[in-house]
Amino acid sequence: MNALILAGGRSTRMGTDKSLLTYHHQPQWRYLYELLTPYCSTVFISCRADQKDNFDSFPCLIDNREIGPLGGILSAFEHSPTEAWLVVACDMPFVSPETIAFLVSHRQPNQIATAFQHPETLFPEPLLTIWEPQSYQSIQAQFEQNRFSPLQILKKANVHLIPCPTPRWLQNINTPEDFKNTTGQ
Ligand SMILES: Nc1nc2c(ncn2[C@@H]2O[C@H](COP(=O)(O)OP(=O)(O)OP(=O)(O)O)[C@@H](O)[C@H]2O)c(=O)[nH]1
Q: Which of 16, 30, 71, 97 could join 26 in a cystine, given CB atoms 3.0 to 4.6 angstroms apart?
């Protein structure tokens, strides 16, 4: 299994690149890199070409097209179609070692993905999910129809949904106000 840290967003609501924000005494992408390394053969940062210098010499996977997070996931499968991809967005600062251990321990490789169930919407959270190789076909099919929602793929598919024991794990931070409320900075 490989890991993919989604960091290629435009962060328009935040006004500054969300992947570079500090929550654990280091940029969030660097924190996630450490956290994912024990579980994965390679951890990649998923980003645009113009962001690459932000990530020193760490392995990056550049989006082949800019269509949002699905573009990052699709580029990952284009790079390694037979690998599973543990995908984590860089704007979820409450993801912890326990979160990843929990997700990995519930993995069902015979389904297209293993995902947390959002406690309010009851939908899968697509950006903290293990995407199995068999999901690649569904992703390609959706892309070919000009539909770019990872959630829609998971809603239609045979996904292993796991209840989230700590709803905060799924909280994402999108605005300066969210950031201030979370960190006090
Ligand atoms: N690789 C990649 N990651 C993306 C892309 N768009 C969003 N992401 C990541 O997906 C996660 C959720 O992003 P969003 O909050 O939906 O989008 P955003 O562009 O970062 O933020 P807004 O511009 O405020 O909507 C974040 O970790 C983003 O870095 C993309 O086009 N490519």
A: 30
Question: What's the pLDDT tens digit per position in 103-123?
Answer: 999 999 999 999 999 999 999
Q: Is the CB of 65 under 6 A from ligand 1?
A: no
Q: Is 53 assigned to a binding site?
A: no
Compute, in angstroms, the gap from residue 14 CA to the centroid of ligand 1.
11
Q: How far is the CA of 16 from the centre of ligand 1 (A)?
A: 12
pLDDT tens digits for 53-99?
999 999 999 999 999 999 999 999 999 999 999 999 999 999 999 99
Residue 65 host element (H or E): none
Question: CATH number of 2-183: 3.40.30.10, 3.80.10.10, 3.90.550.10, 2.40.128.110?
Answer: 3.90.550.10
What is the distance between the alpha carbons of residues 124 and 164, in angstroms, rounded to a whole number? Answer: 10
Give the distance (Å) from ligand 1 centre to CA of residue 112: 22
**Dist. CA 113–CA 115, nearest whole Å:** 6
Question: CB of 152 within 8 A of CB of 107?
Answer: no
